[in-house]
Every structure is written in C-alpha cells, then in structure tokens.
Amino acid sequence: MAGAVDGRMLRLAFWAEIMTSIKDANMSWPGFSYTEAEWTRMEPLADAVAPFDAGRFKVVNAVVFIALAAVAIVGVFLPLATVLFPVAAETPALPFVALLAAVCFLTIGLGLPVSMLVAAPLSAGSATREHLAALSYDAELWSKVAFQMRRTTLIMCGFLVPGVLLFIAYNIDGGPIITVLKWVSWGALLVSTGDAARQRRVRARRAAQKS
C-alpha cells in the first residue's frame, strides 16, 4: 500500500493536518472556510498524517519556499528594478510598489504550490502513506484549496500596493507599535500551535484507547 498514494492526495492530507490544527485551536484562517462535509473528510486525512511527517513537511516546505523566494528576488525583482529604475533616488513610488506586488504574487502564487509539490512526497513516510486512501471527491476538494490559495494571494498582493503607497504618502512611521503587534502575533501563533499539538495528542490517545 505504501507508495501508492499520488502527490495531490499527499498535499491534501498535509493541508488538512494544518487546517484541522487551526480549527482545534478554535481559530480560523480568513479565506479558507469549509463545509461540514468537507471537514468530515479533512479530519481523517489529518489523522492519517504521522506527527513526524507533519513536522517534516512544515520544515521542508518552508525551506523550499524560502529558496524559491530568494530566486525570485535575485533573478526577477533585482534585475527588473535595476533596468526600470537605474537611478535609485529617482525611483517613482507607484511603479516600484507595483513591481514589488507583481513579484510577491509570482513568488507566493507559484512558489507555494511548487514548494508543496516538492515537500509532500519528500515528507510522507510509510506511516502516513499506508493510512491514506483516495475518495472520488478528493480531487474536487483539492481544487477548492488551490483556488483559495490563488484568491488569497491575489487579495494580499492587491492590498500591498495601496497599503505601501499610503505609508509613503502620509510618511507613516510604524515605530514600536508595529514591532509590539508583530511579536504579539507571533506569540499568539506559537501558543495556538502548541495548544493544537496538545489537542492532537489527546485525540490520538483517545483513538488508541477506543481501538
């Protein structure tokens, strides 16, 4: 049975593990909502992912994505910025921010699917593969996930342009407030992640006791 699962199925399982962890922490991710029927499918997919494989996927996916982002910056953004804006002091705000948003859209819109495409088969061991079995509507569910990723990326990059321009136009200085909010958000993320991991361990023990 191990090795018989295709890449799309693996990506869906790892995505389900991430999303159910967020749900278990009583949180939601804007732009990524699912029906009860879809959660009913995603929860067993998440349970099928071995804890070590889940952690390995997050690490490998992050490393691959960062590498792709570095390639986009060095190979696309910097050369185009050098050609379009040869005099840095005379760089117009709108074209520069539009270029930045376009590269961000390229990096996230293409980089994230590619990083998942690479990370999923590298991260899934036999303990995960042998517990996965595709159902007829899994392809439709993954299509929805892929659409949500593209939509969220488009919205994020769309807001980037006016947001940066407002900071430039009004000479806004984020200062210590932005720094504090950033660290608070990171702290909240770490707490929720730890709580979700704890709840998964409890759920796994209960499942083991029932079996």
Structure description:
With 211 residues, the chain is mainly α. The protein has 2 domains: 7-172, no CATH class; 173-211. It is built from 7 helices and no strands. The chain has helices spanning 7-24, 36-48, 51-84, 93-123, 126-129, 138-169, 175-210. Helix 1 (7-24) crosses helix 7 and helix 3 (51-84) packs antiparallel against helix 4.
Give me some keywords for this one.
mainly alpha
What value does the Rg take, in angstroms? 20 Å
Order of helices and strands: HHHHHHH
Count of all domains: 2
Q: What about the largest sheet?
A: none
Continuous helix count: 7
Summary of the model, kept short:
The chain is an all-alpha fold and 211 residues long.
Topology overview:
Layout: H1 7-24, H2 36-48, H3 51-84, H4 93-123, H5 126-129, H6 138-169, H7 175-210
Helix pairs in contact: 1-2, 1-4, 1-6, 1-7, 3-4, 4-6
